[in-house]
Amino acid sequence: MKKYTLFSIILIALITLLVYIEENTSTTFYLFGIDITLPNAVWTAIFLGLFFLFSVIFFGVLNIKEYFYKKNIQKDIETLITNIKNRILYKKPLQKEIKILKNCNNFVNNIEGLNIKPKKCEKFEFLEDIEKLLNGEVIEISKYKLSDDNPWFIMNIKNRLKKDPTFAKEVLKKYKNDELKQIAFKIFATNEKTSVSEILKFDYEITFDIIKAHIKDPDLKLLLQKARLTPKEEVETARAIHQTIDPDKEFEILEPLKWGSAYLALKYEHIEKAKEIIEENELKFFEYFLKLREAGIKADIDEYIDSQI
Hints:
Elements: H1 2-22, E1 26-31, E2 34-39, H2 40-88, H3 102-108, E3 111-112, E4 115-116, H4 126-134, H5 151-163, H6 168-174, H7 178-189, H8 196-199, H9 208-213, H10 220-226, H11 231-241, H12 247-253, H13 258-267, H14 271-281, H15 284-294, H16 301-308
Antiparallel strand pairs: 1-2, 3-4
């Protein structure tokens, strides 16, 4: 303010001097019922002085307002920090008036321990959408301009996949996020209406759930060739196929599954065929049962498996 005052005085003096030098005449103004005649240089100094005075008053008021604003902000910040600590520690917040940062303090009320509860809050309307996402709903998330790997974006797509399984094919084509594509592939591939040829276009793991969904598909063998099943899953696959079509066809389909083929051979009591498969693939699990059957002892393969596997 000192620099401003000094600069203003010098500027007023220079302008007054310039007017005095250029035009040393007088002007009369009628003010408050009185005719006042003064040189133009004096009138110039008076008007500029009044402008300077009002500007000083204006800036003074602004400084006073800024002072109280900063003071209130500092108080609000201290209250907010205390309330955040209290909310984290499950303590009651301070019942102090927040004059400026009211919306921030309202948001603090959503904090519970180390968690943030997405409750409705003024100026934080997006929390309502977060709450919907957590409840399994689908929102219009494009307005937030999130990337494909954003956790909220991924959750929104997951929610939509749950509600609309047909969306899986679009996810596989449109999105690059691998987590989303794997989820979408599982939904897409476990749909009975999806052809095996369409499934094999994607380089993702063929799970037992996918096999079960297509157990009656003529092209099941193509899936089994790519699948990596556990011994138990292979046996369950063979159980599901058993006596559904011609036995030779069943053996042909199960050819990629050594455990499944061995089970099917024992189930049909093709002892020689079973022995060949077991010895060739060193399936020691079946060796004891095979010896029982070779010894002419009647035993049920399913009971044996359920008690051992």
